[in-house]
Amino acid sequence: MSGTAHLAGVLAGRKYPGLKVVTEFHPGMGHVDVVGTAVVRGLRTLYAR
Question: 27 exposed, middle or buried (CB, 10 Å; 0-12, 13-18, 19+)?
Protein backbone atom coordinates (compact mmCIF):
# COMPACT_ATOMS: atom_id res chain seq x y z
CA MET A 1 0.00 0.00 0.00
CA SER A 2 1.35 3.40 -0.92
CA GLY A 3 1.75 6.18 1.62
CA THR A 4 -0.95 8.13 -0.17
CA ALA A 5 -3.46 5.28 0.02
CA HIS A 6 -2.64 4.73 3.69
CA LEU A 7 -3.09 8.43 4.56
CA ALA A 8 -6.40 8.60 2.67
CA GLY A 9 -7.64 5.53 4.53
CA VAL A 10 -6.63 6.92 7.91
CA LEU A 11 -8.28 10.30 7.25
CA ALA A 12 -11.48 8.73 5.91
CA GLY A 13 -11.59 6.31 8.83
CA ARG A 14 -11.47 9.11 11.41
CA LYS A 15 -14.72 10.57 10.05
CA TYR A 16 -13.84 14.19 10.74
CA PRO A 17 -17.00 16.32 10.47
CA GLY A 18 -17.13 18.13 7.14
CA LEU A 19 -14.09 16.37 5.68
CA LYS A 20 -14.55 14.68 2.33
CA VAL A 21 -11.50 12.68 1.26
CA VAL A 22 -10.99 12.44 -2.50
CA THR A 23 -8.00 10.40 -3.67
CA GLU A 24 -6.88 9.85 -7.25
CA PHE A 25 -4.03 7.75 -8.58
CA HIS A 26 -2.45 8.30 -11.98
CA PRO A 27 -0.54 5.14 -12.93
CA GLY A 28 2.49 5.72 -15.10
CA MET A 29 2.70 9.41 -14.26
CA GLY A 30 5.21 11.07 -11.95
CA HIS A 31 4.90 14.10 -9.68
CA VAL A 32 5.76 16.56 -12.44
CA ASP A 33 3.41 14.90 -14.93
CA VAL A 34 0.28 15.29 -12.80
CA VAL A 35 0.66 18.86 -11.53
CA GLY A 36 -1.74 20.42 -14.05
CA THR A 37 -4.27 17.61 -13.70
CA ALA A 38 -4.09 17.73 -9.90
CA VAL A 39 -4.63 21.50 -9.76
CA VAL A 40 -7.61 21.43 -12.13
CA ARG A 41 -9.28 18.45 -10.47
CA GLY A 42 -8.60 19.89 -7.02
CA LEU A 43 -10.28 23.17 -7.94
CA ARG A 44 -13.22 21.33 -9.51
CA THR A 45 -13.62 19.29 -6.32
CA LEU A 46 -13.39 22.34 -4.04
CA TYR A 47 -15.82 24.44 -6.04
CA ALA A 48 -18.27 21.74 -7.17
CA ARG A 49 -21.91 22.62 -6.62
Answer: exposed
